Amino acid sequence: MDLGIRGRRALVCAASKGLGRACAMALAQEGVALTITARTAEALERTAAEIRAATGVAVTTVAGDIASAEGRAAALAACPDPDILVNNAGGPPPGDFRDWDREHWQRALDANMLTPILLMRAVIDRMIARRFGRIVNITSAAVLSPIPRLGLSNGARTGLTGFVAGLSRQVARHNVTINNLLPGAFLTDRLRSNAADEAKASGRAVEAVIAERAEAGPAGRVGDPAEFGAACAFLCGAQAGYIVGHNLLIDGGATHATFA
After folding, report:
1. Model confidence band, residue 139 (pLDDT cutoffs 50, 70, 90)
2. Largest CA distance in the chain
3. What totals of helices (H) and strands (E) does the chain contain, helices first?
4. What b/e sequence results for 170-182 when a residue is b if at least 16 CB atoms lie within 10 Å of its CB, and e otherwise?
5. I need a surface site. Which of 133, 196, 203, 250 has the fewest CB within 10 A?
6. Strand order from edge to edge, sheet including 84-87
7. Of 134, 40, 115, nearest in space to 72 by CA
8. In sequence order, what are the residues at sequence separation of 6 or more whose Cβ sits closer than 8 angstroms to the Cβ of residue 90?
């Protein structure tokens, strides 16, 4: 299926690895020119080289923290007028809410709520002017089914979800869509980090924790990041213009709900 976005430009945040990388690769496979960001320059350049080799598309890299004003400014200087914006940032650490002070909450909100909003504000008017824009926010399945030890993420990402619910309906008539992708368990560094935290607390091996989580879900496995990237690319496609303000849960059926 040709998604009709060959030659478009995309800004993909936190794209050096994991789900952000998968989204960048899937867009590149559709012929989209990329600007990708990440905090670690070495990993970012390695990913860019792999994407160029696999697809032949132009890839610009911007090393920096997208959750900082400087990081956002650098990303937007490199790609001031994207057709596609994929918002993504590393999630805050797990823990007990009794241990989190205002600074913990502020960092979580900056990375997982306010940064996506500020990036949308920076690019959306030009998307409206040319009557094409696709914005995808990578949030979490925890927006629908909160994970107790991820309270910082639960709160910040749910705030973003509420904001998008309103904004998406204001811009849809201009062929600008905003949707959220809600990942469950995918085999990423983030999953391994959370599994390591749980393994330490329970005295088990990390791989045992991951295997247990995989077996607990209806699909009997954790997700492949490439599956997630393909879903992102579809939401960015020309054919997705009637999908507005949606929260697409991709978790192998792990969330038990009649309506998700």
Report:
1. very high
2. 56
3. 9, 7
4. ebbebbbbbbbbb
5. 203
6. 59-63, 33-38, 9-12, 84-87, 133-138, 176-183, 247-250
7. 115
8. 14, 111, 190
